[in-house]
Specification:
- The structure is a single chain.
- The protein is α/β, with parallel strands linked by helices.
- It has 6 helices and 7 strands; from the N terminus they run βαβααββαβββαα.
- The protein has a single domain (about 1-200), classed as Maf protein.
- It has helices at about 10-20, 30, 45-60, 100-110, 180-185, 190-200; strands spanning about 1-5, 25, 70-80, 90, 120-130, 140-150, 165-170.
- Strands 1, 2, 3, 4, 5, 6 and 7 form a 7-stranded mixed beta sheet that branches.
- Helix 5 (about 180-185) packs across helix 6 (about 190-200).
- The longest helix has 17 residues, at about 45-60.
């Protein structure tokens, strides 16, 4: 099976390829020649995930003669939802303060002195499967959630985004300190992908 992951984020792509079963070949947008910017105009993770998947699906549908061996498209949108901030940054996680270092600094500022540091990472994946007989594609959504807490400072060199701040439940180290194999087995994206695999 060949599926397009609607992303060119190398960190995400590497994580997804490690988690997906060998029977699924995961292609990036770069692999299929998709170069357009996708406007994530949705107000929820569910909406943005669907926008990305549908945009790429529509583009592939216009090129079916050259991309006829692709079975579908999936896209994710992920949010960090901090309890004390009423679920913020949520859908604005990646662009909360402009870029990763500033985003992490803002999270630490917003929680300065606050003992309630509970939060969760939530990933929503939209899968669009193409019909073998040319009929309407099917659309499904799944999600994965991992609870945890925000550290009081940044720890670790691995991962990306908020990983140096996020301590998953049951652990005393951040995602950035944990080996990739451990993070990929318990992360929000891993849990969403496991649900996705059940649909394939």
């Amino acid at each position: 099976m060949r599926l397009v992951f609607a992303s060119n984020n190398d960190h995400k792509l590497s994580e997804v390829r490690q988690i997906m079963p060998p029977s699924v070949e995961v292609l990036s947008l770069r692999d299929i020649g998709f170069e357009a910017e996708i406007d994530e105009t949705g107000s929820t993770l569910e909406a943005n995930s669907r926008i990305k998947a549908e945009t790429v699906s529509d583009w592939i549908s216009g090129k079916r003669s050259s991309l006829s061996d692709i079975d579908g498209v999936f896209a994710d949108d992920t949010g960090l939802e901090i309890d004390a901030l009423h679920g913020a940054p949520g859908v604005y996680t990646a662009r909360w303060a402009g870029e990763p270092v500033a985003n992490r600094a803002k999270a630490l500022r917003e929680l300065d002195g606050n003992e309630n540091r509970g939060c969760q990472f939530r990933t929503v994946i939209t899968l669009i499967r193409f019909s073998a007989d040319g009929g309407q594609p099917s659309v499904s959504q799944v999600e994965g959630v991992v609870r945890g807490r925000i550290a009081t400072a940044e720890y670790g060199e691995g991962g990306f985004g908020y990983d140096p701040l996020f301590i998953p439940e049951g652990y005393d180290r951040t995602f950035a300190e944990l080996p990739a194999s451990v993070k990929n087995s318990i992360s929000h994206r891993a849990r969403a992908l496991k649900e996705l695999v059940k649909l394939l």
